[in-house]
Amino acid sequence: MSSTDANRLLVLEQTPIAFLKVIGRATARQAPEFAQAIEGMQSRGVRQFIIDLSECLTMDSTFSGKLVFSALADLPPHLSPEKGRRFVLVRPNAAVIDLLDTLYVIDFFTITHADVSAALPAGEAREQPATAVEQSAISECCLDAHRVLSHLHPKNAEKFKDVVRFLEEDLASKASSPI
Fold it and tell me: What is the pTM of this model?
């Protein structure tokens, strides 16, 4: 997540656990970098994610879709999503909780309002380096996130059908047009 616009992601990785702090707005613009960071940590053996949202001002449906997708990725086959809650969301504000609830994905996470700073391992959190993300990558991320949300609950499928269709058509037209 880019630090130039006050949106930042801090990471303290202690395999098999990672501690992350989302600062600022968690939106479609930050979702690709967040998802890439999570995927990288999962490939290095991180299986539990504690995500501090105490300074996350707002979250949109794209970011929440990538968050739930990441929570379900690499879930061992013997665990159901309810038993495999590998993502702990720490101190999310009321708007974030409301979003996750109205998208029917809140049950994929453990929510706590406790101060977990004393439980953090020794070490310094590093800022996830900002990378330039092209608009096409953001659009693909939006499409993936909304497909996941649509798949998880029929009300989401109805709510996001036009978004999914628009993004599919937009990405297809850009892929077929000469540069």
Answer: 0.86
